[in-house]
Write a structure and sequence with these properties.
Layout lengths: L1 H4 L2 H9 L6 H7 L4 H4 L4 H23 L3 H7 L11 H13 L6 H27 L3 H24 L2
Helix pairs in contact: 2-9, 5-9, 8-9
Amino acid sequence: MPFVAAIIPLIIGFIWYNPKVFGNAWMKASDLTEEKMKGANMALIFGLTYVLSLFVAFGLISITIHQIHLFSIFADDPGAKDPNSEVGKLMAGIFEKYGSNFRTFKHGAFHGILASLMLALPLIGINALFERKGFKYIAINVGYWILSFAIMGGIVCGMM
């Protein structure tokens, strides 16, 4: 599912940054013009966007799926990979009883929103401060990532 979730920023971006939605306001807030936008290698931009979105999708797995942390607790234990060992049986028992807890689209979307507020907002905000960009620039870009993280988190949590 991370490979599906990584498509979300591209889809949301096509809509969000469309001139009929936030595209014109974003261009103005970013100090971009139609002239500056011409001549870009869009295949490279979209390809790298997908690859970088894969990083986000895989990162959201550890944020949205709480059961992942069980593996990190027992990762170094020699019996972790042996289903007949004490640790293997313990892990199997925990997954049998709690393996599907909090594994919904809604829960993943909630954690995606939290992650965007705690990661994307500060990163975009800090860059915007140094780039001397205004509130509108931050709001448009952070809004995009809140929506993208929410849908991506929902996909990786509820559908994996």
